Amino acid sequence: MDYNLTPWEAKGNFDYERIIKDFGISRIDAKLLNRIEVAAKKKGLPLHHMLRRGIFFAHRDIGWFLDEFGKGNDVFLYTGRGPSGKVHLGHLVPLLFTKYLQDLFGAELYLQFTDDEKFLFKKELSLEDVRKYTEDNILDTMAIGFDLKKTKIIIDTKHAGLLYPEAIRVAKKITFSTVKASFGFDNETNIGSIFFTAMQAVPAFLPSVLKKRNIPCLIPHAVDQDPHFRVTRDILPKLGYYKPASIQCMFLPSLLGVESESKMSSSIDNGIYLSDDEKAVRKKINKYAFSGGQATVDEHRKKGGNPEVDIPYIWLTFFEEDDNKLKKIHDDYKSGKLLSGEIKKIIADKLVFILNEIKERKEKLRHKLKEIMGSLDKSF
Ligand code: TYM
Predict the structure, then answer these.
(1) Is residue 372 a part of any domain in this protein?
(2) Which ligand 1 atom is nearest residue 91's CA?
(3) Does the Cβ of 226 fall within 6 Å of ligand 1?
(4) Which residues 6+ apart lie within 8 Å of 237 measured at CB?
(5) Is residue 260 part of a domain?
(6) 85 CA distance to ligand 1 centroid (A)?
(7) Residue 79 near ligand 1, beta carbon < 6 Å
(8) Do both 308 and 176 map to the same domain?
(9) pLDDT at residue 253, rounded to an integer
(10) Does some domain include residue 141?
């Protein structure tokens, strides 16, 4: 089956092998994993479970980025969020990984909140709606535990004066035919949307502009954002900057299952949000999570379940760090020892634990929101 994958549409059967070929990205191989593991060890960190399990599966130029870091050169990280609603578990995947990278590289992180993008691309959203989500999303994001001193928040409309002169330098080098081919735009697309990729390109070189020297950039994101950075990588050398490197993950599938042809997305209202309370998390999992279990307990005990399609199990591969625990769950589920209701409880417990930690940190950060939103202003 075919797929359609742009930053604004993700539908179909995600055959990641094919996406690698179609997008021209590279698989993260054993040699690269080893290099990352060596660097992580120096910081007392393990190789992240999302790397061990191939969830972060592809990259552009990460070898170069590791070389630069290895030489002792300054490097930085860049990722972002489009504030079109509440932050959900899918968004959490690259964010948790970015926190690991910040610890590993001890690097500055630039977090872009593309309020302009969500206003332009979502008919139903007013600028006021998007602004409200932006503040809430910033708190959720920072509550993941980023280093406050090393993290700068970019809000496109708030920091327009800083971003716009750089964005037009990028935009001047991108033709309409390039964005049409990269993003599937047509003559009905509004002109703000056509321009937008230039805004998402800017944080990949903004620190180099501010610090007046070229600094290597690494961008963690899910594979849907790659078209932006394919364009960015084409343009930046023409402006005298490095191409940014990227490290890319697969999608956390929706609760409805991998066959439902969808990633977890804000447009599907059974998503799990960081703000959901324990009751809501348990209810959504019990009610909607696609199960690889058998129809009756008897049958399940006899035939066993299928972890490959079971959403609670698949989600555990994203969120349960402990390989031994995960293997036992896998084996017990497959043999029929662990029932569908039991594996649902395991993933629900894990998520409730993660979300409670984030919520606690969010409350502690709330009074610092203004300061956090102004973190970039001190840089220029
Ligand atoms: P947004 O808000 O759509 O998504 C934020 C980040 O979450 C990733 N993502 C997912 N990852 C795993 N499973 C899912 N189901 C899932 N759904 C979304 C996205 O790939 C993204 O990494 N335009 C961007 C905001 C942005 C950005 C960036 C993102 C600006 N600069 C640099 C990444 C890197 C957006 O709307 O993301």
Answers:
(1) no
(2) 7
(3) no
(4) 243
(5) no
(6) 13
(7) yes
(8) no
(9) 94
(10) yes
- Written as one letter, the residue type at 271 is G
Instruction: Give the structural domain span for 221.
Output: 3-255
The residue nearest atom 32 of ligand 1, judged by CA position, is 79
271 lines ligand 1 (CB under 6 A): no
The average pLDDT across 207-215 equals 97
Mutating to test ligand 1, I would choose from 11, 55, 60, 91 the residue with most ligand atoms within 8 A of its C-beta, which is 91
Tell which of 255, 275, 290 closes a domain.
255
Q: Is the CB of 246 under 6 A from ligand 1?
A: no
Residues 107 and 239 in one domain: yes
Confidence at residue 1, expressed as pLDDT on a 0 to 100 scale:
55
Ligand 1: distance of its center to the CA of 82 in Å?
A: 7
Do 186 and 250 belong together in one domain? Answer: yes
88 Cβ inside 6 Å of ligand 1: no
The reply to whether ligand 1 has any atom less than 6 angstroms from the CB of 252 is yes
Does 93 contact ligand 1 (Cβ within 6 A)?
A: yes
Shared-domain flag, residues 154 and 218: yes
Q: Work out how many domains the chain is built from and give that number.
A: 2
pLDDT tens string 104-153: 999 999 999 999 999 999 999 999 999 999 999 999 999 999 999 999 99
Query: Could you tell me if residue 371 is inside a domain?
Result: no
pLDDT of residue 99: 98
pLDDT in tens, 285-318: 999 999 999 999 999 999 999 999 999 999 999 9
- Output the domain CATH number for residue 142: 3.40.50.620
What are the two backbone dihedrals, phi and then psi, of residue 247, each rounded to the nearest 5 degrees? -135, 125
Question: Is the CB of 137 within 6 Å of ligand 1?
Answer: no
pLDDT at 266: 64
Q: H-type helices in the chain, by residue range?
A: 16-23, 30-42, 49-52, 62-70, 89-105, 115-121, 127-142, 160-171, 176-183, 191-201, 206-211, 226-235, 278-288, 297-303, 311-319, 323-335, 340-365, 369-373
CATH number for the domain that contains residue 295? 1.10.240.10
| pLDDT single digits (tens) 44-64 | 999 999 999 999 999 999 999
| Same structural domain, 43 and 62 | yes
Nearest to 252 by CA among 65, 53, 83: 53
Give the distance from CA 43 to its chain's centroid: 23
